Amino acid sequence: GAGVSQSPSNKVTEKGKDVELRCDPISGHTALYWYRQSLGQGLEFLIYFQGNSAPDKSGLPSDRFSAERTGGSVSTLTIQRTQQEDSAVYLCASSAGTWYSGELFFGEGSRLTVL
Amino acid sequence: EDKVVQSPLSLVVHEGDTVTLNCSYEVTNFRSLLWYKQEKKAPTFLFMLTSSGIEKKSGRLSSILDKKELFSILNITATQTGDSAVYLCAVEATSGTYKYIFGTGTRLKVLA
């Protein structure tokens, strides 16, 4: 597509439910990142995918968080047994590659509210 | 631990003023520094800097990197209300994997 697409744009859920957030990166971009931004805070790194390499999961805050990227394109971030502190905007970004520096292109984000 | 620190945290100015936003960093294997503007949700790209001392300019915005002192500045001249936003600094580091580390941002408000 023309840009990074994320869905849903807004999600309200009850504490304890599972949620899935989807990211469709720019076509041809091999690198995909998930970030979390809590109200008034900067971007917190969650996970990074590069091509077919094993993902860098070092930013995932707990084992309730997981992500996958199928076919090197679309990615899904799953949060199990959601807690109120999971409420945030989840931003996905993609970039063209790693052998040269490139800008990150961001999606509009998914705003998650856990009641 | 890799970190990026931005200052000030927030700033209120009047239209026409000039502002300077600061970004300092401590990372392993620096690769590039990027500035983004975030008005609502998606940060939009402003500049990418890889070399020291070379100013990048776009209209009223400019930025420069000092790799010896490990900082960058973003200047905005003749500010307008449309410049009101959060300005994010990110450093691309290659410590283990390629990663963009973001600062907490500077919230700029420009009053008419």
Structure notes:
The complex is a heterodimer of chains A (115) and B (112). Chain A is globular and about 35 Å long. The relative contact order of chain A is 0.33. Chain A contains no helices and 10 strands. In chain A, the strands form 2 sheets. In chain A, strands 2, 4, 5, 8, 9 and 10 form a 6-stranded mixed β-sheet that branches. A 4-stranded antiparallel β-sheet of chain A has the order 1-3-7-6, with no helix packed on it. Chain A is an all-beta fold. In chain B, strands 2, 4, 5, 9, 10 and 11 form a 6-stranded mixed β-sheet that branches. In chain B, strands 1-3-8-7-6 form a 5-stranded antiparallel β-sheet, with no helix packed on it. In chain B, a hairpin with a 5-residue loop joins strand 4 and strand 5. Chain B is globular and about 45 Å long. The mean pLDDT of chain B is 92.
Chart the SSEs and their pairings.
The complex is a heterodimer of chains A (115) and B (112).
Chain A: E1 5-7, E2 10-13, E3 19-24, E4 31-37, E5 44-50, E6 65-69, E7 75-79, E8 88-95, E9 105-106, E10 110-114
Parallel strand pairs in A: 2-10
Antiparallel strand pairs in A: 1-3, 3-7, 4-5, 4-8, 6-7, 8-9, 8-10
Chain B: E1 3-7, E2 10-14, E3 19-26, E4 30-38, E5 44-49, E6 56-58, E7 61-66, E8 71-76, E9 85-93, E10 99-102, E11 106-111
Parallel strand pairs in B: 2-11
Antiparallel strand pairs in B: 1-3, 3-8, 4-5, 4-9, 6-7, 7-8, 9-10, 9-11
Provide keyphrases for this structure.
heterodimer; A: 115 residues; mainly beta; 6-stranded mixed β-sheet; 4-stranded antiparallel β-sheet; B: 112 residues; 5-stranded antiparallel β-sheet; 0% helix; 60% strand
